[in-house]
């Protein structure tokens, strides 16, 4: 159970030459177990939204709430996946997957057993003692996902998680990640500038305006509610309509 | 080479590579042997003044004499000992100071101009000061060796720390890592290659520091032998010491390379304790 809420959130960056309004008046509620994609041009502050939920940044005005509680710092309830896997090359696959637990001092024998099980389930069974450079991009991304899931977050933040993969892998890893996240009933917020990716995975797509970023529109994607996988959604007849509508909106701002 | 079922073309390619490598080795060896032969011949036929330039056979005799009655091992031991000590302390203290600079950006900004100045000052100029403060002792020699290696270590390591991918730091911060955890889990393990590079530079620098230190303040060691030999115009002793010095520097450098290979083979472990 986790619901994320932005209440009138604004954020300003300060530099020597002046201040920059990155976000202004963001109001958004992401429901429990919902998958929301956020699209917008570069620099519209969409990644900043994730940093606010994760507690790495604090809003200048307004507040961010998880289940009604204001976010004040990093929280065990939130897991963050960055644009690349950032697996540490000096750690084995297993040790990489255990990184989050280790930092939170929760590396119990049971937790380790659970991570090993996850590695096995997601096709990394024989690779526990390999080092990251020995794995393919798709496998590494799965390790990164397991590293995030290992700390049992309720809310997952994905910051263009597939951008480092080639197109073929992007589709298959995306398909897999969505399946895993639905299975585990996570609330997911994904930032991307790939419109098809945003539409194919999400219950709702949020379109942001250019800086200072705020919400321009929200598109409800009915395929996801019907339980279609990303690949099935891409083949649905309405897919193109969603794509065109969102593309036009983003293009109007360019 | 065991049979690997390679095609004849591939065998030919491999043989070509091996021949080339062999040729390089042979040429390197010939260059060295040729140099010594030319030196010896030139001295014997009086093309060069053997009193000033010495000659390989005399250098060899001087080495033997050192080994049998001149305390060769004592001198080698002093130089190697002082170098290793200066090198270890300089590197270790340099890394600790670099960590402090990384820890406090304020401290780093305050120290910046001083480090730049200390880096550009020729540390050898400090030699006489160490001698006055510490006397003509081994301590003065080691202080010289440390002073040459420590500033470079600080600068190399601090730069290395700052160049660690900020996204790796962000990753552990999303898990709620403390500053100490960022240091232990990311900064230090990610900087191991920089550390090895610093060690490699420091091996050479510490040797420079030790020799200069011995010039000024020692009654033993290769630096002392070189100065002594120069003063009594025993050029064979000087040449022998210089050649021994090159052998030592190669061995020390090779030692660090061995360490690098061990670390490179996945031997890096983080400072444990979660």
Describe what this molecule looks like in 3D.
The complex is a heterodimer of chains A (254) and B (274). With 254 residues, chain A is an alpha/beta fold. Chain A has a domain at 1-70 and 189-254: Rossmann fold (3-Layer(aba) Sandwich), CATH 3.40.50. Helix content of chain A is 37%, strand content 25%. In chain A, helix 5 packs parallel to helix 6. The longest helix of chain A has 17 residues, at 167-183. With 274 residues, chain B is mainly alpha-helical. Chain B has 2 domains: 8-48; 58-267, MetI-like (MetI-like fold, Orthogonal Bundle), CATH 1.10.3720. Chain B is built from 12 helices and no strands. The two termini of chain B are 47 Å apart. The chains are: A alpha/beta (254), B mainly alpha (274). The interface between A and B is medium-sized, with 25 and 21 residues.
Quick gist of this model?
The complex is a heterodimer of chains A (254) and B (274). By secondary structure, chain A is α/β, with parallel strands linked by helices.
- Proportion of beta-strand residues of chain A: 15-25%
As a percent range, the share of strand residues of chain B is: under 5%
Terminal CA distance of chain B reads 47 Å
Q: Work out the oligomeric state of the chains in this entry.
A: heterodimer
The profile of the biggest β sheet of chain A is: 6 strands, mixed
CATH class identity of the largest domain in chain B? Mainly Alpha
Outline the low-pLDDT stretches of chain A.
Answer: none
Here the CATH topology of the domain at 1-70 and 189-254 in chain A equals Rossmann fold
Basic shape of chain B: flat
What's the total number of strands of chain A?
10
CATH superfamily of the domain at 1-70 and 189-254 in chain A: P-loop containing nucleotide triphosphate hydrolases
Helix-strand category of chain A: alpha/beta
Computed CA radius of gyration of chain A, to the nearest angstrom: 18 Å
Question: Biggest interface: chains and residue counts?
Answer: A-B, 25 and 21 residues
Q: How does the helix and strand content of chain B classify structurally?
A: mainly alpha
**Roughly what percent helix of chain A?**
25-40%
The coarse overall form of chain A would be globular
> Quick one: how many beta strands of chain B?
0
Mean pLDDT of chain A: 89
């Amino acid at each position: 159970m986790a619901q994320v809420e932005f209440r009138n959130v604004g954020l300003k960056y300060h530099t020597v030459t002046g201040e920059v309004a990155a976000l202004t008046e963001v109001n958004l509620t992401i429901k429990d177990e919902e998958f929301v994609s956020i699209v917008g041009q570069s620099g519209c502050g969409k990644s900043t939204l994730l940093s606010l939920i994760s507690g790495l940044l604090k809003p200048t005005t307004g507040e961010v709430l998880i289940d009604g509680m204001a976010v004040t710092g990093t929280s065990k309830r939130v897991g963050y996946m960055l644009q690349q896997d950032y697996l540490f090359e000096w750690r084995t696959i297993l040790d990489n997957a255990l990184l989050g637990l280790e930092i939170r001092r929760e590396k119990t024998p049971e937790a380790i057993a659970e991570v090993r099980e996850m590695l096995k389930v997601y096709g990394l069974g024989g690779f526990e003692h390999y080092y990251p450079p020995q794995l393919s991009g798709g496998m590494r991304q799965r390790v990164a996902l397991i590293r995030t899931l290992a700390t049992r977050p309720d809310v997952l933040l994905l910051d263009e998680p597939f951008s480092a993969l080639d197109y073929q892998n992007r589709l298959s890893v995306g398909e897999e990640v969505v399946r895993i996240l639905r299975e585990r009933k996570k609330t997911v917020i994904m930032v991307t500038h790939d419109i098809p990716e945003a539409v194919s995975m999400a219950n709702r797509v949020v379109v942001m305006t250019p800086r200072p970023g705020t919400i321009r529109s929200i598109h409800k994607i009915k395929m996801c509610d019907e339980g279609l996988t990303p690949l099935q959604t891409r083949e649905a007849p309405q897919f193109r309509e969603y794509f065109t509508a969102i593309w036009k909106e983003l293009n109007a701002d360019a | 080479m065991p049979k690997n079922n390679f095609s004849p073309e591939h065998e030919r390619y491999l043989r070509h590579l091996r021949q080339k490598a062999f040729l390089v080795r042979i040429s390197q060896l010939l260059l060295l042997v040729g140099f010594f032969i030319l030196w010896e011949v030139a001295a014997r036929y009086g093309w060069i003044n053997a009193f000033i330039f010495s000659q390989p056979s005399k250098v060899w005799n001087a080495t033997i004499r050192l080994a049998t009655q001149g305390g060769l091992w004592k001198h080698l031991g002093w130089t190697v000992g002082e170098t290793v000590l200066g090198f270890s302390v300089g590197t270790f203290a340099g890394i600790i100071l670099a960590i402090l600079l990384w820890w406090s950006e304020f401290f780093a900004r305050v120290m910046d101009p001083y480090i730049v100045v200390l880096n550009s000052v020729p540390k050898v100029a400090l030699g006489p000061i160490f001698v006055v403060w510490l006397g003509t002792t081994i301590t003065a020699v080691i202080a010289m060796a440390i002073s040459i290696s420590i500033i470079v270590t600080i600068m190399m390591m601090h730069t290395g720390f700052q160049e660690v991918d900020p996204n790796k730091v962000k990753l552990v911060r999303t898990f709620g890592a403390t500053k100490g955890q960022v240091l232990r889990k990311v900064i230090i393990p990610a900087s191991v290659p920089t550390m090895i590079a610093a060690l490699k530079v420091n091996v050479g620098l510490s040797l420079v520091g030790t020799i200069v230190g011995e010039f000024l303040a020692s009654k033993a060691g290769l630096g002392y032998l070189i100065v002594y030999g120069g003063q009594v115009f025993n050029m064979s002793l000087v040449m022998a010491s210089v050649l021994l010095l090159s052998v030592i520097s190669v061995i020390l450098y090779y030692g660090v390379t061995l360490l690098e290979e061990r670390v490179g083979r996945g031997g890096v472990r983080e400072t444990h304790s979660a």
